[in-house]
Amino acid sequence: MRASVLLSSLALALVAQAASLTGPRTLVLLDTLDEADAYMELWTDMQERHYNVTLHEVSSPVALSKHDQRLFDHLMILSPKMKDYPKGMSAKSVVGFVAAGGNVMIAGSSELGNTIRELSREFDVEYENKFTSVLDHFNYDTHLGKEKHDAIVVDPTTHMAKAEKIIAQDKVPGPILFRGVAHAVNPSNSLLQPILWAPQESYSWESVNLEESANQDPTLSGKGISLVSVMQARNNARIAFLGSTEMLTDAFFSAPVNKHGDEKETVSGNRLFIEELTKWTFQEKGALDVVAVEHHKVGEWEAPAHYRIKDNMTYTISLAEYHDGEWHPFSADDVQLELIMLDPYIRKTLDQVPLDDQSTVGTFTTTLQLPDQYGVFKFTVNYKRPGLTYVESVTTVGIHPFRHDQYPRFISQAKPYYTSAASMGVGLLVFSVVYLWGGLDSSVKTTKKA
Amino acid sequence: MSAASSSTIARVLKPTILILIAVVAISSRLFSIIRFESVIHEFDPWFNYRTTQHLVKNGFYDFWNWFDEKSWYPLGRVVGGTVYPGIMVTSALIHNVLHFFNFPVDIRNVCVFLAPMFSGLTAFSAYLLTKELKDSSAGLLAAAFLGVAPGYISRSVAGSYDNEGIAIFLLVFTFYLWIKAVKTGSAFFGLWTALFYFYMVSAWGGYVFITNLVPLHAFTLLLMGRYSNRLYVSYSTFYAVGTLLSMQVPFVGFQPTRTSEHMAGLGVFGLLQLYAFAELVRGYVSPKQFRTLLKGGIAAVSAVAVVGLTLLSLSGVIAPFTGRFYSLYDTGYAKIHIPIIASVSEHQPTAWTAFFFDLQMLIFLFPAGVYLCFKELKDEHVFIILYSVFASYFAGVMVRLMLTLTPVVCVSAAIAYSTLLDTYLEKSEHVLAANLKGTQSPNVISDTPAEAAGSKAAGNSMKKAAAKTSTKTPAKTAEPEINKSQSKTKRFPIFNWDSRAMVVMLLTWFLFMFAWHCTYVTSGSYSSPSIVLASRQQDGSQVIIDDFREAYYWLRKNTKEDAKVLAWWDYGYQMAGMANITTLVDNNTWNNTHIATVGKAMATSEEVSYQVLRQHDVDYVLILFGGVIGYSGDDINKFLWMVRIAEGVYPNDVKETNFFTPRGEYKVDHDATPTMKNSLMYKMSYYRFAELYGGNAVDHVRNARMPSEGPTLSVLEEAYTTENWLVRIYKVKDLDILGRNLKDATAFDKGKVRKVSALKRK
């Protein structure tokens, strides 16, 4: 059964202006449709950002793609208890969905089933065992986590990654409430990055039999517990992992926070945190585009078929950044150009052309002298920064040696040799003339020789 | 028969015979075209063909400065400066001339038929050369022999568009001109020798043979006390002009002044000048003074030469002998020091049988011809003797140098054969008698104008025994003496017509056998294009195995234009020529490190290999696998060479011993070592091989029963396998988009889910 609960005609009309770069079609998987009510504020927020949200329960069949075409642009898996995928879906199809450029948001809970756990493993994210929770006896919310100390309060200023392009610090005003399962990320996977992690005093433990005394150390504790992590796949598809479905609910979105030991009551920052997270995950911001790459010799304007060694040339790359529904000029001071033939021969930081009101793209340029080495070079801009899509612009250009007539014809050092050769020639000529017509009587000698 | 009419007949017959010889020479090289089609053969010809196409399309200036970005990726190759352009320029010239006269001949056909056409010219030059040594009848025989000798055909069948195709003609013709120059002492012929030497330099690296043989000839003449102004003029002209010209070829450049291979020419040139100077001085001073001067002069010159050469060699101005040269000197050298040279089959020492196979009866006549040269021993005969000695040695060291031996064998054999015929076909016995006495026989028909030169030479040689310098004594003065001796000799029984007929018939029978053998060898062994294979089925019907072209065509049509394909260097030229893709290494083995890198990619495990593949932007990997049809020239059989070459550069990553079982065997079946089984080459070769036979696969090349469970591949995926599995092409996977290693990603794609995570610490 498919229910497009919030599919309003307004949303349809605004499809063209969808805030997301990749599209508005969003599939939300829920354990049961009844749960949808808990997330009303989330749906409202997303609808305002022109998402076309399809709610779906796991018991009914659904397909992510048809004829190798994605049917959805974004997938939210808010069904932690899921035992099997809906008919038509599989772990492979989710990975295939990501490979086709779809964005995914996965949220767990203490009752996380093996299906999600195995799927996350492919992304090098490991959720803790079933029925465990992140517990903290110091940083819990006195209201929501009164019994088990499992609703923990995380301070975004200290426990959130400082990745401005994903979630800017100043966008999240209040502490973040979290109740759910811990996960760990593989630190060797450079695509993956924890965004929110647990306070130092937290640990992950079974939340069912809390009365029993612990006889071993928790597997995960403190900073090792990731609460929210994000991955940007190599094809720039984005995936977010949350340990808690509850932090998306209305109850957590605007709950008053009473941290244990704190007198002051504050308002939860969950709503804005999730808004920023979904904006990033669903590619509403932080997307870069290589608009143009130009290169030419100094003094020319067309790209040559090939360069010659030690030519002076100019390289220009134009980048645009997508946020708030449209493309803006990108500005940075750390965009580098590399000339690679097996190894980089030249690595140089590009200068940004100052932006003005008319600028639609950020232009980065440099002028350099090519190396004294011929071969097939790659002019590479390899710009990978957290939160931004990967820019890997490769222009392959041959650098040729001098042609045989491009060397200097005469060199000054060789002047003695030129003189010597010329004088030799003149001498021979004079000698021949003198010998033949100079009136010398040479007949005696010549006959002798014969 | 009157003298006048026989001369007319000879005048008509000789060109006719020569033309017929050329026709035979050309047509016996066309087997491959009739049997297969007009294609370029083997490996190197594909490069020559590709560069010729470039030359025809873009003109000479562009060709001269061609920087090829498609080979040796990413290093590129300066083609114009690393190629002997002779053959390409020749073809392009022929092509342009034909097009000027509106014959729209495709450049491919010019290339295919170039070598056979030049073989006709080679036969003609052999005629000229032998004529200088003996007479025109021996010349005709030499032309006929060289026209069909398999030793030369092996490199000049239609489609074998290689440097040697024209170089052998140039070699023989240059030698002819040199002999002519020495005989006449004319600067004109010396100049022509130099010009053809230049053509030879521009056509083949084997020009070094001329560079050393001609000075050696001059030096030997000097030692024999045969210094003459003729020698001085011809050698000085040849050396000065030839060296200057040869330096105009970019690939040769300054080598004539710097490398040891060229030093002999320079040394002899200097020596000749000194000798000439000494001769000059001798005319002005008394013998006693001259002796003192000579002693002092020799001591001073040799001291200066020794010190100078040592200093120059030590300071590196004169390069030491190159590896290829050492391997000529010591056959074991290459195997130890330069595996890349040893790995080439044509650089292997020659098997004894090859001499008979390539030359048949000529190899028996060859020593006889050399002996006859000794008997005569004029300046030009010294040359032939030197040529035969050195060419025999080199042909014994390296298979492909059989090619330089063949012309001299043909010439010597023709001299011997012609002498036999002269002896036994002669109408009058006086010739025989004269021969038995050890004196030279003038020909009976020598009074005809056409033969005047020959008879003069013969007459001269008799005089020469007494007088060193050549005189212009007319031949006729010799004849009365012979006439006298003729009247005195008795009639030997073996000079009866029946015994003579037996000898002549036997000789003729040999000729038939020779022609039959040559045709048989040419059609059977030397006419396979090697890019198309033919095999016979049990019922005798022929099957054409065209997997190479199938694979190259697939690459041409299905890969993006700048796709980079990694393969062992043997196939580089073919891939570039036929598939038009970018290759990493090819048959121009100039960069050992790059080849070793490819060897490393083949010989290491998938993980190590993947790094190499990524670094070189490789899109596809191509290998040859003969296990299905039993093609023994496949990559698993060449694999040990890849390992050896890789080990030379990357001793930490590749070790040859790890590819041998503890019992020292090279195995591919159950007993294969783990290193072997994990190597990329093994995996690519046997990937899904077991499935083909339902688990009971047998490798037909190595007669090995393969394990029922074949290897798995994770960094590559099979892209294409040809009909007979001869060529297999794999695509290199991109990095996993989720950052997993490719082994896990492949397992996941096959439906295996990671059950236990490595992240769990407890």
UniProtKB/TrEMBL annotation, chain A:
Keyword presence, Transmembrane helix: yes
Spans through the membrane: 417-440
Record domain OST48 N-terminal: where: 25-281
InterPro entries: DDOST_48_kDa_subunit, OST48_MD, OST48_N
Keywords, comma-separated and alphabetical: Endoplasmic reticulum, Membrane, Signal, Transmembrane, Transmembrane helix
Pfam short name (any one): OST48_MD
Compartments where located: Endoplasmic reticulum membrane; Membrane
Domain of life: Eukaryota
Biological process according to GO: protein N-linked glycosylation via asparagine
Membrane topology of the entry: Single-pass type I membrane protein
Domain OST48 middle: 295-437
Signal peptide range in chain numbering: 1-18
One annotated Gene Ontology cellular component of this protein: oligosaccharyltransferase complex
Subcellular location, principal: endoplasmic reticulum
Pathway annotation from the record: Protein modification; protein glycosylation
Subunit structure: Component of the oligosaccharyltransferase (OST) complex.
PANTHER family: DOLICHYL-DIPHOSPHOOLIGOSACCHARIDE--PROTEIN GLYCOSYLTRANSFERASE 48 KDA SUBUNIT
Known role: Subunit of the oligosaccharyl transferase (OST) complex that catalyzes the initial transfer of a defined glycan (Glc(3)Man(9)GlcNAc(2) in eukaryotes) from the lipid carrier dolichol-pyrophosphate to an asparagine residue within an Asn-X-Ser/Thr consensus motif in nascent polypeptide chains, the first step in protein N-glycosylation. N-glycosylation occurs cotranslationally and the complex associates with the Sec61 complex at the channel-forming translocon complex that mediates protein translocation across the endoplasmic reticulum (ER).
Protein family according to the UniProt entry: Belongs to the DDOST 48 kDa subunit family.
Protein name, UniProt field: Dolichyl-diphosphooligosaccharide--protein glycosyltransferase subunit WBP1
Protein species of origin: Mortierella polycephala
TrEMBL record, chain B:
Family statement: Belongs to the STT3 family.
InterPro entries, A to Z: Oligo_trans_STT3, STT3-PglB_core, STT3_N
This enzyme's EC code(s): 2.4.99.18
Gene Ontology cellular component list: oligosaccharyltransferase complex
Cellular compartment(s): Endoplasmic reticulum membrane
GO molecular function: dolichyl-diphosphooligosaccharide-protein glycotransferase activity; metal ion binding
Catalytic activity line of the entry: a di-trans,poly-cis-dolichyl diphosphooligosaccharide + L-asparaginyl-[protein] = N(4)-(oligosaccharide-(1->4)-N-acetyl-beta-D-glucosaminyl-(1->4)-N-acetyl-beta-D-glucosaminyl)-L-asparaginyl-[protein] + a di-trans,poly-cis-dolichyl diphosphate + H(+)
Oligosaccharyl transferase STT3 N-terminal domain: residues covered: 13-413
Protein keywords: Endoplasmic reticulum, Glycoprotein, Glycosyltransferase, Magnesium, Manganese, Membrane, Metal-binding, Transferase, Transmembrane, Transmembrane helix
UniProt domain STT3/PglB/AglB core: residue ranges: 564-614
Annotated region described as Disordered, given as residue ranges: 453-483
Domain of life per record: Eukaryota
Function description: Catalytic subunit of the oligosaccharyl transferase (OST) complex that catalyzes the initial transfer of a defined glycan (Glc(3)Man(9)GlcNAc(2) in eukaryotes) from the lipid carrier dolichol-pyrophosphate to an asparagine residue within an Asn-X-Ser/Thr consensus motif in nascent polypeptide chains, the first step in protein N-glycosylation. N-glycosylation occurs cotranslationally and the complex associates with the Sec61 complex at the channel-forming translocon complex that mediates protein translocation across the endoplasmic reticulum (ER).
UniProt cofactor(s): Mg(2+); Mn(2+)
Protein name as annotated: Dolichyl-diphosphooligosaccharide--protein glycosyltransferase subunit STT3
Gene behind the chain: STT3
Pathway linked to the protein: Protein modification; protein glycosylation
Pfam families documented for this protein: STT3, STT3-PglB_core
Membrane topology: Multi-pass membrane protein
Biological-process GO terms, alphabetical: post-translational protein modification; protein N-linked glycosylation via asparagine
Transmembrane segments: 12-34, 78-98, 110-130, 136-153, 165-181, 187-210, 231-251, 263-285, 297-319, 352-374, 381-399
UniProt biased composition (Low complexity): 463-477
